[in-house]
Amino acid sequence: MRILITGGSGFVGQRLCKRLAEQGHSLQVVSRTPDKVRSRLPEGCDIRENAQAFADSPPEALINLAGESIAAKRWSDAQKEELVQSRLKATHQLVTLCEQLKENGQALPHTLLSASAVGYYGDQGANKVTEDTSPNDEFAHRLCVKWEEAAREVEALGVRLAILRIGLVLEFGGGTLEKMLPPFKLGLGGRFGDGKQFMPWIHRDDLVEAMLFLLENKSLTGPFNASAPHPVTNAEFTRTLAKTLKRPAIFPVPAPVLKLGFGEMSQLLLTGADMRPARLEAAGFTFQYPTLDKALEAILNK
User: Fold this and answer.
1) What is the DSSP letter of 99?
2) How are the residues of the chain apportioned to helix, strand and coil, as percentages rounded to the nearest 5?
3) Is there a contact between 94 and 62 (Cβ–Cβ < 8 Å)?
4) Span 130-142, pLDDT tens digits
5) Please, where are the H alpha helices in the chain?
6) At what angle do helices 292-300 and 234-245 cross, to 10 degrees?
7) pLDDT digits (tens, 9 = 90+) for 257-282
8) Is 246 left (phi over 0), alpha (psi -120 to 50) or beta?
9) Most Cβ neighbours (<10 Å): which of 76, 109, 148, 225?
10) Residue 301: how many CB atoms within 10 A of its CB?
């Protein structure tokens, strides 16, 4: 089928596009710089600058991954607004495309898979978190709420919606490990603060397979926690990463130092949620990498 993807040239999107192409799907990718990203994507991808440009070739499904990296810059008021608007703009484009197709009497996509994040729940301490857990109100939560609410507009048009609240994505060459590996390889790694905060994580391959699973199972709707079934604390993550690299991890970073350096954005490092993929597992999804040691060994021993 024809599948339109926003964020298709990103860290997760590239792997997703590869898997979809392997399955024989026709890919439509939204990018502001088509010529620049073409080499990162499978041959034959139809790349255009906005979602509405695909109205002449209506997609049968939509996957929404676009958004400014939440950890790219310190959270000034302007950066917060950019984080929100980058997500809303991409999502609204997809909603507008669906509205245009309906007005023209054309077939609508049957599904929208839309990204969200563990930040939806805010700081949860040691509470076990499922899709039914009440969130803690903070910036990351409010960001995700706006993102999810924008995506829900397609439901009124008759499009099935599944939302993925994604944990920290692990794989070589990007994501969480890209910034963590250099100091840990030098033996300079350590926990953040007291290390008790949870880090819900997922191997990139499992995230992509979860997306394919939701795409294929048309009875599944609503939010799904996209994280491995065995989350770990920051201290456990630190120990497991150091052990896999065969390096010490004896240089903790005190919480006041992180707060001074990153301001409000330090919440990403010092708080977390013990997020569990309750609905994915109940639906029958099986993780290839359910534990952190298995995931890191697969990534670092390539």
Assistant:
1) H
2) 45, 15, 35
3) yes
4) 999 999 999 999 9
5) 11-22, 34-37, 77-103, 139-151, 175-185, 204-216, 234-245, 255-262, 267-270, 278-282, 292-300
6) 40
7) 999 999 999 999 999 999 999 999 99
8) left
9) 225
10) 7
